[in-house]
Each structure stands twice: as C-alpha cells, then as structure tokens.
Design goal:
CATH topology: Pnp Oxidase, Chain A
Distance between the termini: 46 Å
CATH class: Mainly Beta
Shape: globular
Number of helices: 3
Strand content: 35-45%
Structural class: alpha+beta
Number of strands: 7
Strand order of the largest sheet: 2-1-5-6-7-4-3
Number of domains: 1
CATH architecture: Roll
Radius of gyration: 15 Å
Order of helices and strands: HEEEEHEEHE
Amino acid sequence: MPPTLSDDIKALVRGPNFAHLASLMSDGSPQVAPVWVDLERDTILVGTGEGSLKAKNTRRDARVALSIIAMDNPYREAQIRGRVVERRPDADFATMDRISRKYTNKPFPFRDKPAERVVLVIAVERARFTVLPFVHAPA
C-alpha cells in the first residue's frame, strides 16, 4: 500500500513551489528537470509533452524522484521517490491550465501540440519532509 503523504508534503505540492523531477535515461544515467506539480489525493501530477525527455524516460522506466522546496523558505523541503502509474492525455489542457494558473495566474501558454499533452501521475513510494535550521540570506 502506498504511503499517505504528510500534511507538510501535501502543502508543498499544493503550493506554487518548484520541484525537480529525476528520471532515468536508457543508459541508466539520471536526467533532472524543473517542473510544476499538483496533488490529486496522494498522487503527484506533472504535465509535459510526449516528446519530452521526462515523458520518454518514464515510458521506458517508470521510476522517478522529486525534490520540492518552498519558495518562501528553500530549507523546507520534500524528497520523494515513486513511479509513474498513469499517463493521462490532456489535449484540452484542463489539468495543465489548472496547474499553470497556480504558478502564473494564467492559462498554460504553449498550445501548439494539444494531442501530445500528457499528465504523468506519480504514485509515491517513499517520502521525507525536512525543515533545516537555516535562514536563506544570500550575500
């Protein structure tokens, strides 16, 4: 049974916080990309195009990892491992527009290939939330 995400992790995913999604290339090397994320029950949603590396990589090997940091305090973070368990078509941009509005307050702007839009549904297998005792105060 997949773990239930803590309220702290859910808050990070629900907020307009950036995540980095790691997937595996065909030679086993990692590939990482910054992504927008959203939450659906205890699964994480990532929108992308079918031609992206993350889509190609997860079609071949569903294992992924995510690192999410709070924009207001980058020392509040979640580290997640899981698998892409579903690939939902999003040709009408319903999911991508909702996620885009969360981050930019506007619909998703890149609408040239609607048939290639897909939402990766990630089932979480392991998750850890941490708040480090630092203050982000760059020089």
